[in-house]
Design brief:
Elements lengths: L3 E3 L2 E4 L4 E4 L2 H7 L2 H4 L20 H15 L4 H9 L9 H7 L3 H10 L2 H8 L4 H8 L14 H14 L6 H4 L4 E3 L2 E3 L2 H18 L2 H21 L11 H9 L4 H11 L5 E4 L7 E4 L9 E2 L2 E2 L5 H11 L4 E6 L1
Antiparallel strand pairs: 1-2, 2-3, 4-5, 6-10, 7-10, 8-9
Length: 324
């Protein structure tokens, strides 16, 4: 599945809607900063062993199209949606979480300086305003437990491609609106959206996905030590470039880790107890978001919604990884 560009319009097949892009948005679409996201997997290291291959650009365009659909005249919010993920590292959260990077800080840096900043300034936009929007509660995202456009797209896009939802995203989006900063809908649609959240989390936080995250991060750290470079070398890379660096490294440790990650994941063993030589990996964060129904969080109206939130929260675990 992919979005298609035709002159000044962008069609997203997930929602089956076509959005007219503004001139500065088209220029950003054509920039290297945005194009790089086409070569970052939205599904992280899970894309290495599953058929789920959509990119972070696919997700970005989806989020932007949702914002543009419901807030067509809010040009700065549309820009925030378009630029909200440009600071992601290769394989998205996988390496970032383990090695201590912060893609939010990297995103802000790229908005303030570099190619995106030049395009914003050329068209009369202040990058600081866009950064501020990314740090406030907006329909794009928030620090609350309520759902915004960013996670709405992530849940539906991932779950649809996994094959785990009863209604397709284009049907669900017909029944939502925004109440202030948050997605509001009816109980039936809300439960479908929250089921997508559960399906998504079960897939990208599966023990195997978390194990491969940890092994890939270990390979990156070993590479940086062997090559005597700072870990920050990975920040501008794509998935493919990072894999090339790691596969061509002469370090036996890096070679063995990459052999397991890329070619022999069946050798991976996942345990619930620590032991010598086992790599500890953790699920520290989940995205347990809920929609509004009649102005109230759906969990206050539905026991089924409460159970879906519990399922997602239960995935916060620690595993111990080895390979044979």
């Amino acid at each position: 599945m992919q979005q298609t560009f035709c002159q000044e319009t962008v069609y997203d097949p997930l929602y089956r809607h076509e959005i007219k892009a503004l001139p500065h948005e088209l220029e950003l679409f054509q920039s290297k900063t945005l194009r790089r996201l086409k070569f970052l997997s939205h599904y992280g290291t899970a894309s290495l062993y599953s058929p789920i291959m959509h990119s972070r650009l696919d997700h970005t365009i989806g989020v932007w199209s949702v914002i543009a659909r419901f807030f067509p005249n809010d040009k700065e919010l549309r820009l925030a949606a378009l630029l909200h993920d440009i600071g992601h590292l290769p394989f998205s959260h996988a390496v970032e979480k383990t090695l201590g990077f912060n893609h939010h800080a990297n995103t802000e840096k790229l908005i303030r300086e570099g190619e995106a900043a030049r395009i914003l300034k050329k068209h009369g936009y202040d990058g600081e305003h866009i950064v501020a929007l990314l740090n406030e509660n907006t329909p794009l995202t928030s620090k609350t437990s309520l759902l915004g456009a960013d996670h709405f797209d992530s849940f539906l896009r991932d779950a649809y491609l996994v094959g785990g939802i009863a209604k397709e995203p284009w049907e669900l989006i017909q029944n939502i609106r925004f109440s202030g900063d948050f997605v509001e809908t009816d109980i039936e649609t809300g439960l479908h959206i929250m089921e997508a959240m559960v399906v998504d989390h079960n897939a990208f936080l599966s023990p195997l996905a978390i194990a491969i995250d940890g092994l890939l991060a270990k390979a990156v750290a070993a590479y940086a030590k062997h090559q005597e470079v700072k870990l920050s070398f990975i920040e501008p890379l794509t998935n493919y470039e990072l894999i090339y660096h790691l596969q061509t490294c002469e370090s036996p440790e890096v070679k063995e880790l990459m052999n397991v990650v890329l070619w022999e994941p069946h050798r991976i063993c996942i345990h619930e107890t620590p032991a010598k030589e086992r790599l500890q990996v953790e699920v520290k964060k989940v995205y347990d978001k809920e929609v509004l129904v009649g102005g109230r969080p759906i969990s206050t109206l539905s026991e089924e919604a409460q159970e879906k939130l519990r399922k997602v929260k239960s995935l916060q675990k620690t595993y111990y990884v080895s390979y044979q």
